[in-house]
Amino acid sequence: MRTPKGRLQMVEGTRSSDSGFTLLELVIALTILPLIILIIGNGFRLGMNAWEKGEQETVWTQRFRVLSGLLSQQIKSAYPYIMEVEDEKVAVFEGKSDSVMFVTSLTDAGFGGFKWVRYSYKDGTLFLKEGLLPDKKLDDSITGDEEIVDTDIEEIKFAYLSAEDNEWKDSWDYGEKLPGAVRVKISHFEPFLITIPMGLAQKKEELESEPL
Length: 212
Fold this sequence. Notes:
- By secondary structure, the chain is of the alpha+beta class.
- It contains four helices and eleven strands.
- Strands 3-4-5-6-7 form a five-stranded antiparallel beta sheet, covered by helices on one side. Strands 9-8-10-11 form a four-stranded antiparallel beta sheet, covered by helices on one side.
């Protein structure tokens, strides 16, 4: 029995279309595939960058807690230790925008007494230098080798609160009393305040009555 010619052509055309991709479909597939790969790659890259940034933020937060805790503990213990500087009795506390030097009662258990502490920031590094008191050559002792506390710090800045006029100052010289508080800015974190107990912000007459 013969198959009609038109029906035979229709069957052959159906087989041809089911046998594989056409050239147009192949071109479209080859065009879309790189785009899909690019989108997936960018998504993966963004995810990795977000993860790395999160890790860096976590590490920086921990470093900030350590630094702020260290500075807070020692500055809170600042003591108005009296020394004679240029024939005048003054409380030992000197501060600049990038450094602070003071006397603290926090010393090693084996020594007791007082010690001077100086923190200074330069070129992304926080340095520490300290020594026991009394020290008749304090000005010379402050200079010299310093201990590195931390590195790769974007910024550290100090400011000092004057209780008399209730204003923040960029520096604090040897004088009659200690500042009421110290404000510390570390990198991109919000500045934090370190309040010095008001009982230590004494008048010059009170300080001079204390033993050297």
